[in-house]
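INFO  loader      accepted 1 record
INFO  loader      residues=254
INFO  predictor   begin
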Amino acid sequence: YMLVVNASNIEKDWNWISQHNTANVEMHNISDKTCLLAIQGPNATKIIQSLTEADVLNLKYYTFTKGTLAGVENVLISATGYTGSGGVEIYFEDKGDDASIIWDAIFKAGAAAGIQPIGLGARDTLRLEMGFCLYGNEIDDTTSPIEAGLSWITKFTKEFNSREIFENQKNEGVTKKLVGFEMQEKGIARHDYEIKTFEGEAIGRVTSGTQSPSLGKAIGIGYVDTNYAAPGTEIFISIRNTLLKAQVVKMPFV
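INFO  predictor   done
INFO  writer      dumping tokens
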């Protein structure tokens, strides 16, 4: 198995897994010698397919294959990503000039499609539009997958840490829920801004917010008391001591 974790949590996740490695599984941290490129967008798979004989076009979401890419052997091509735009992530050993070779080949193959390099700011906007959770924002040590709307990946068919707590939440309900919202008044909700009622009662906090390029409006995600979690509910974001109107909406936003 290869486990891909949030880059800022490598040590934290490694320590956690090590502490709970009761089966004495042999583990290796290969982060420093592994390259990862995410090629995302509607033309991404076509671009990558032109550089490999591996069947990329027919890869199902969250599956992978291995092959030679741009002349570099043993490249793992995974139909994953965190943009909601389609595409692949590729992993390969960091040796010689392989990273530069693959990078240059991808940009040459994608030139006609207008391929561009982007950073985490653009990635964050895209994942927010899809309602994807980001560790440190929507999920952390104080939240549960049930509160975060991740019941679909929380399976109770085996034992795991905190199973009883999460199972009780699923059966009995939670006191707060992660919701999406659109601003109804001019303003952008930012991480940790308070969410309130019209009367000024605190009912939650913003976890992420931005101006959506796709929608042309300000959107956000945050935790609110369950009584205010239904789509269509009017909430207010406290921005610089001013309450600005927003409305709870279903996610994804696009």
